[in-house]
Amino acid sequence: MDMTRTDTHADLNRKAALASSAVALLLVGLKVWAVLSTGSSAMLGSLADTALDLVASLATLLGVWVASQPDDHNHRFGHGKAEALAAMFQVVLISISAIGLAFRSAGQFMGHERVAEAESGVIVSAIAMIATLALLAYQRSVISRTGSLAIATDNVHYKSDLFLNLAVIAALVIDQWLGVAGADAAFAFGIALWLGWGAWGASQDAIEQLMDHEWPLEKRERFLAVVAQHPELKGLHDLRTRTSGNRDFVQFHVWVDGRMTVTEAHRVMDEIEDKLMAEFPGVEVLIHPDPEGLVDEQPMGAQDLLAPGPNGESPALVAQGSPGAA
Question: Which of 42, 161, 251, 292 could bridge 171 with an S-S bond, Cβ 3.0-4.6 Å?
Answer without folding.
Answer: 42
